[in-house]
What we know:
By secondary structure, this protein is mainly α. It contains eight helices and two strands; from the N terminus they run αααααβααβα. The structure holds zinc ion.
Amino acid sequence: xxxxxxxxxxxxxxxxxxxxxxxxxxxxxxNKTHPEYLRKHYEANRDKAIEYGRKYNRKIKMMALSMxxxxxxxxxxxxxxxxxxxxxxxxxxxxxxxxxLGAGCSLWLKIISGKRKTDDLDIRCxxxxxxxxxxxxxxxxxxxxxxxx
Length: 149
Ligand SMILES: [Zn+2]
């Protein structure tokens, strides 16, 4: 059976595509009954899994940010270090929204899928995002941030 499948990859792919739910359900059941295998598999491929996750996150983030603004940089200081850039809620409420959405990249995914409008969002680096939050909460704190490229 395995050999036949290897010789007919196109058929196998089509079958999987048509029976997606079945395949997922089957894999879920198998995973439940083989926790030891899963653990070993994860440990053996840990670095790869982490690296893959990192790349995926970066891609999603870039896509979401490019939908907010053509220029992917902090609107306040011009920082363009992707690791530091964040989606900023212009009117505040970011913490509240991320609590509702759950941690991780759900906001990015919502933006990409078009389920989340971007008119109340802009791009800021972590530093400017914090200052923006502080200013909203306490009034202007007179901080000046500069970024040397
Ligand atoms: Zn900044």
